[in-house]
Amino acid sequence: MQLPEHGANSTRLYESLNLVEPEEVLDFSENCNPAGMPLSITNAWPDLISKLLSYPDPDGQPFKRAVAQFHGISELQVLVGNGAAELLSLLAERYRGKRVVLIDPTFSEYRATLEASEAEIISIQANEAENFRLPVSRIQDNLPRAAAIYLCTPNNPTGILPSMEELIAVIHAAETSGTEVVLDEAFIDFVDEKHSFIHQVETYSHVIIVRSMTKMYAIPGIRLGYLVAHPEIIENVKKQAPHWHVNGLAAEIGMLCLQEASYRERAIHHAEVERKKMADFLRAHHCRVIDSAANYLVFSPKLNARQLYQDLLRQGIVLRHSENFRGMDGRWLRVGMKSEAMMERLREAMAKWFEQQ
């Protein structure tokens, strides 16, 4: 049984399991903001369409300028990309044929892009018994052998946000060993920008930050992300990218999104409230739950996770499986935080399932 590698693909999921897809599907397998894209994008749409008549700016302006202003950094430290996926592919080329450390379980695109670039992957498995906390000492032991290490902060799928002390310990060790540190902050804006490492990149020239606009602003279809790093790294990575790789619509939409302070605050609050309600519910039903800082959480039911997953699918409820997350192996499930009504429907369905077991 080959399940899709990512969430947000319910049709392919049902096809892979030879199940009939219900007319109504509630998809908790993806983690975009349930509020939908900011209203400012809808209001600006008539003007945005005019961008189709011109070639886009080769540097991704005006989005690149907006990113620099948003974080209080130089534009020379920013590279705009066609989604974080493209940026990860560009970084993988930087490490072609070299050794790279990954901490499992984590986002599958790291391994996929690195393997495509024939990198040698050193995999460190976080300990399930320790709730998949960052294994700092084992990481430090492996850094002298590696050109880079990838860390997801907060981690996908666990939602664990390493402490600043843990990150600094790894970053200092990496500096000594000449290892670059790639920090994927795709979900950091669901926590708080004060937890981002962007404001310290100027101090640590070997740190590269990957950011996505997809999750917070619910714009997965437009593809937009950015790197923040030392200007020399930015210039080097940029050489691998094709010309006009960020479309004009995306650049304008990204600029509008970064102006949405109250929108972000509402999203953070909603994620916190729904995450707590869901975690309390799951623990009340004897599930093991990992404390998450993001807009999703993972849990392991006391009974068969695969059975729960498939039984919910038959009801039109899609969770994220963990078959392709190393060390989770299908025994854990991930839930994205959706609207209050959707979350309540999920809990009702799960409560019935637990009662019947």
Structure commentary:
- Helix 2 (39-49) runs antiparallel to helix 10 (248-257).
- This protein has 13 helices and twelve strands.
- Strand 9 and strand 10 form a beta hairpin.
- The protein folds into two domains: 10-30 and 262-356, Aspartate Aminotransferase, domain 1 (Alpha-Beta Complex); 39-259, Type I PLP-dependent aspartate aminotransferase-like (Major domain) (Aspartate Aminotransferase, domain 2, 3-Layer(aba) Sandwich).
- With 357 residues, the chain is of the alpha/beta class.
- Helix content is 40%, strand content 14%.
- The two termini are 25 Å apart.
- The chain has helices spanning 10-16, 39-49, 63-71, 83-94, 108-116, 136-142, 164-177, 214-217, 231-238, 248-257, 261-284, 305-314, 340-356; strands spanning 26-27, 78-81, 99-104, 120-125, 148-152, 180-184, 207-212, 225-228, 288-289, 296-300, 317-318, 333-336.
- The model has no long low-confidence stretch (mean pLDDT 95).
- The strands form three sheets. The protein has a seven-stranded mixed sheet, with helices on both faces. Strands 9-10-12 form a three-stranded antiparallel sheet, with helices on one face.
- The longest helix is centred in the last third of the chain and has 24 residues, at 261-284.
